[in-house]
Specification:
mainly alpha
């Protein structure tokens, strides 16, 4: 059963779990701070709402470091010649997109007479079919 809301104990667990290296706490210590058994936290981790909030808290915790992270991508790309880092740095800055271009090759010279001849043949075939079904 999925949670509809998170409890204060869950928010305490999220705060510690979202901190790098769990803020120096063990899993058991975090459970003790929450007043629950360690297995309870493991069960909470299976819930989509709990996991969404945990990930959101991780993002909130790391937002101050994003400028340095993005800057380091370019440094790594240049220093190591890392194409993946270069691509990521360009994508983040909107300079590289996953754009797909489709080229169609058509000729402007449509053979109108050939199309008219095909239409006339089609009409005659249809008339013959209509005649053969009404005469039988």
């Amino acid at each position: 059963m999925a949670f509809k809301t998170l409890t204060p104990e869950m928010y305490i667990a999220i705060q510690w779990l979202a901190t790098p290296k769990k803020g120096g706490k063990t899993f058991e210590q975090i459970a003790e701070l929450c007043g629950v058994h360690p297995n309870t936290i493991l069960n909470w981790r299976k819930d989509p709402l709990f996991e969404r909030e945990l990930k959101a808290q991780m993002v909130r915790n790391s937002q101050d470091k994003l400028p340095e992270l993005i800057e380091s991508l370019a440094d790594i790309a240049i220093r190591d010649g890392n194409a993946a880092m270069a691509k990521l740095a360009l994508q983040i800055n909107g300079l590289l997109t996953d754009k797909v271009e489709v080229e169609t090759k058509t000729t402007d010279a449509t053979d109108v007479e050939a199309l008219r001849a095909k239409l006339e043949t089609f009409k005659q075939q249809q008339q013959r079919k209509g005649t053969s079904t009404t005469s039988g």
